[in-house]
């Protein structure tokens, strides 16, 4: 399960930081700590949007950032998985 927004370092929806980057960094940190392992399915966009209290499009951008970092892979119709 993902953390509440108060626990996510750098997530201030009113601040100047990019929210999608803070979310991507949080998920990347979870991968680094082994909380999400290779092959694990990342929660869906709607679940993450609800958990983080952000728009679904912001979650989609965070997932795109994680793909660009080479941390996850999205399989159409299946979900997003840790590499």
What are the salient characteristics of this protein?
83 residues, alpha+beta, Arc Repressor Mutant, subunit A, three-stranded antiparallel beta sheet, 3 helices, 12% strand, globular, disordered N terminus
Describe it.
There is one protein chain. The protein is of the alpha+beta class. It has a single domain (5-82), classed as Orthogonal Bundle (Arc Repressor Mutant, subunit A). Helices cover 42% and strands 12% of the residues. It has three helices and three strands. It has a three-stranded antiparallel β-sheet. A hairpin with a 3-residue loop joins strand 2 (72-75) and strand 3 (79-82). Helix 1 (19-32) crosses helix 3 and helix 2 crosses helix 3. The longest helix is centred in the N-terminal third of the chain and has 14 residues, at 19-32. The two termini are 18 Å apart. Mean pLDDT is 87; it is low at 1-5.
In short:
The chain is α+β, with helices and mostly antiparallel strands.
| Number of self-contained structural domains | 1
CATH topology: Arc Repressor Mutant, subunit A
User: What's the N-to-C terminus distance?
Assistant: 18 Å
Shape: globular
Mean pLDDT: 87
| Residue fraction in strands | 5-15%
Instruction: Give me the side-by-side strand order of the main sheet.
Output: 1-3-2
Task: Provide the CATH superfamily.
Answer: Winged helix-like DNA-binding domain superfamily/Winged helix DNA-binding domain
Instruction: Kindly provide the name of the CATH class.
Output: Mainly Alpha
Ranges with pLDDT <50 over ≥5 residues? 1-5
- Please report the total strand number as a whole number: 3
